[in-house]
Design a protein that fits this description.
This protein is α/β, with parallel strands linked by helices. The chain has helices at 19-23, 27-32, 38-52, 69-76, 88-94, 133-145, 160-165, 215-225; strands at 59-63, 80-85, 102-106, 117-122, 147-158, 170-175, 178-187, 190-199, 202-211, 229-233, 248-253. It is globular.
């Protein structure tokens, strides 16, 4: 972390330098990304559940669910849903929407669930956060081991080829009176986003760091995990995946 060169900045959550354990647990993460397209997310869930032909009241796991926007909508579609995330703050917020068929838990995605699911969704590039390749492989294995015999899993990841082709190295976003200064670059096989801003006289520095996995990288990991890749799509309307033009890399597997 470049903190030592910026002593006035803080990566909030004392005692940890794991970026996702600090950044996702702050209100600033949700401020910066408040304009995400909820309708697009709902269309994706409609298309995905229709494609998978999930049974009525299917058990669904939304893994790395954040504040639960996908989980809440999946529950509205009639599914029995668990949303799981490492961020205690996000789960506390999501729990405000809990009901008999919608539950939220703090959970490390490297650890399998005891119960089995008809579908497991890992959405919005919530994979590839770990420094150690072995931990990302453990996550895949945990997903596989948490599926029922007839269950399917879905990873919705960025299309690295398109992201790198269109990477904006530097920009400033003004949200709720806060100027977020953002830098993006590729380093050591990670796509890194540095976020600097000031609020109420305090200066902050955060970092997002996601492994730049290609489809071939996923295929290699899935082979190691004994996973069968069934289909790939390139956007939320489930159009065919094209390496050089698709917005997303959406993988269906079991």
């Amino acid at each position: 972390m470049p903190e030592n060169s910026k002593p006035e900045t803080r990566n909030v959550k004392p005692g940890t330098d794991i970026w996702y354990a600090s950044w996702f647990d702050t209100p600033y993460y949700h401020i910066l990304y408040k304009d995400r397209n909820y309708r697009e997310a709902q269309i994706f869930m409609d298309n995905l559940t229709h494609y998978l032909n999930l049974p009525e009241k299917a058990k669904v796991l939304d893994l790395a669910c954040g504040k639960g926007r996908h989980a809440i909508y999946l529950n509205q579609l009639g599914y029995d849903v668990i949303g799981a995330d490492l961020s205690e703050n996000s789960i506390a917020e999501a729990n405000k929407n809990a009901n008999e068929t919608l539950h939220f838990v703090v959970h490390d995605k490297r650890i399998p669930f005891e119960e089995k699911f008809d579908a497991i969704f890992n959405l919005f590039t919530s994979f590839g956060y770990f420094e150690n390749e072995e931990d990302n492989l453990k996550t895949l294995i945990a997903i596989k081991e948490s599926l029922s015999d007839y269950g399917f899993a879905v990873i919705d990841f960025m299309n690295v080829h398109t992201v790198l082709e269109n990477l904006i190295p530097e920009e400033t976003k003004e949200v709720d009176g806060i100027s977020f200064h953002i830098k993006r670059y590729l380093a050591d096989s990670f796509i890194i986003k540095e976020i600097d801003f000031e609020d109420q006289g305090e200066k902050y520095h955060f970092e997002e760091k996601v492994k730049a996995y290609t489809l071939d990288d996923f295929k290699n990991m899935m082979d190691q995990a004994g996973i069968y890749l069934l289909d790939t799509f390139g956007d939320y309307k489930l159009k065919k995946f094209h390496k050089n033009t698709s917005e997303r890399l959406i993988m269906i597997f079991k």
